[in-house]
Amino acid sequence: MTTHSTVRDVTERIRERSRTLRSAYLQRLNEIRHRERGSDRMGCANVAHAVAGIPANDKLKVVTERAPNIGVVTAYNDMLSAHAPFQGYPDIVKHEARRHAATAQVAGGVPAMCDGVTQGTPGMELSLFSRDVIAMGTAVALTHDMFDAALLLGVCDKIVPGLLIGALHFGHLPMVFVPAGPMPSGLSNSAKAKVREQAAQGLVGRQGLLDAEMQAYHAQGTCTFYGTANSNQMLLEAMGLHVPGTAFIQPGDSMREALTREAVRTVLGRASDKAYAVPPIGELVDERVIVNAMVALLATGGSTNHLIHWVAVARAAGILIDWNDFSELSEVVPLLTRVYPNGTADVNEFQAAGGPGFVIGELLDAGLMHADVQTVRAGGIREYANIPSLAATPSDEHALSWHAAQPTKNDAVARPVASPFSATGGLKVLVGNLGRSVIKVSSVPDDRHVIEAPARVFDSQGALQDAFKAGELQRDVVCVVRWQGPQANGMPELHKLTPPLSVLQGKGFRVALVTDGRMSGASGKVPAAIHVSPEAAAGGPLAKVRDGDLIRLDSIAGTLTVLVPDDEWAQREVAKQPEEQRTDNAHGLGRELFAGMRRNALTAEEGACTWL
């Protein structure tokens, strides 16, 4: 299938834009790749330190036999339900490596915070920047420089982008990502959202809300809605960085250990029982692979956080992308899935309907993904249109086989390109005198794609919640929540605003959110112009908005404007962040340690990077 002209043109534009940066990146990788292996290159004391803690037989393999040594970077902790299964993975990895005359060492661990725990609390102000901390932690682990390949264990929101950014700074190594899968379905996401809306209205008390939440989040594995964590897994499949079909196999499934062992065999170059040298990750992740990830995000209605994260990921590989690239692709990439918050199904239902394999196969057949890319598998990206299953044999209880994903088994959850939920990916860039922002409209009702209403300006999400509880928002309104960007307070997600805004919209009011903060797509059915750049703290236009200003959010035309005469707007004073709020954001719960990151953070469209 010929690659779609828009996909081809966007890729070529990215390639041309990135030519100098990418060339310098690849040159650095090439120089590193031709060094002697670690235990031969390093001093004797260095090598002795590196192997002092491992069994004697492994020492012999590393030092004398020069066997491949796999570095494992793990984001394990049992605060995150999605990461708790990783506790036993290193032992599995080491056992499988030894079966193939190789060794493995846990090179290091990286922090991994749960946004579900910190939503609406001061700790959430560390969340976005934790991505760059994880990238640095990955670099610290791999800096031991004794490894011939690496496995990266992570699933959730900032963790996968952080691991990937760190990995790309060690782009000379072959690497495979190893997930853990989603938790079994509990209380449906729709039922959970309903209880939250009832709680926002005071119709359900704390115990009722707690009961519902604990029925929804109840076991090991990722949360079952299609937020950033599960979008991460879809994108890694589309980039060819997983063992194919690994993303949404549950932690308790008998296939889970088999797939983890297959990741070891894959990174060692023994995929499908054939010798295949896995390309260095920095070579593998090229412009086409980045575009494939962008297409997969759009086709599945994934998290808007990736309009920040994948800009940073691409930059780590010497590739420059921007929101215009996403928006142009969105015009030709159809929406193939309805998974909460863009539908009622959860990721387990998505997996049962065909999962990533079905979607990738459809996109490849339609020419909407680049088919001629390298992956960690010998068969290329087409292998990722396959579904794994156990094929137990007398000699190997963990043997796997793959078969092509079948046509969708539930067209309420997943559909083919020929009959999509929408002809476009549902993502728009909004541009106007309020700056640049993005909006996810894949689940916004058609009659809410254009909102024009008076502004109510808030300096925090708490202030909006207080106004809602006081009954001050029972009208058509555009809620402007500012001082929520990277430089102001670390750009927390504002999920706590979804229930009250949904309640207002449910009452028939025309409402919208405009903010320089994040929503992760969790705004769902409420129109939300997010990531507004430049942010208010950098003197952006949101700092000029006043209560009562008429704001027009037009996701059809792609505009975000305040309807104030140009001369008046030009002369209007730029507000300053309240001193009390600025001081509060800088202190407590470790926020002092992130002052340099807030100060140096780039804009959301530049990936909110703190390391450039």
Summarize the structure.
GO terms for molecular function: phosphogluconate dehydratase activity. Keywords: 4Fe-4S, Carbohydrate metabolism, Gluconate utilization, Iron, Iron-sulfur, Lyase, Metal-binding. The protein has 612 residues and is an alpha/beta fold.
Keywords for this entry:
single chain, 612 residues, alpha/beta, 8-stranded mixed β-sheet, 24 helices, EC 4.2.1.12, ILV_EDD_N, 6-phosphgluc_deHydtase, Dihydro-acid_dehy_C
SSE blueprint:
Layout: H1 5-33, H2 38-41, H3 44-51, H4 56-64, E1 69-74, H5 89-99, E2 103-109, H6 115-118, H7 127-142, E3 149-153, H8 159-168, E4 175-178, H9 189-200, H10 206-216, H11 228-239, H12 255-267, H13 281-284, H14 287-299, H15 306-316, H16 323-330, H17 347-353, H18 355-365, E5 386-390, E6 400-404, E7 427-432, E8 435-440, E9 450-458, H19 461-469, E10 477-481, H20 486-489, H21 498-506, E11 511-515, E12 528-533, E13 550-554, E14 559-562, H22 566-571, H23 579-585, H24 595-600
Parallel strand pairs: 1-2, 1-3, 3-4, 9-10, 10-11, 11-12
Antiparallel strand pairs: 5-6, 7-8, 8-12, 9-13, 13-14
Helix pairs in contact: 5-12, 7-8, 8-15, 9-10, 9-21, 11-14
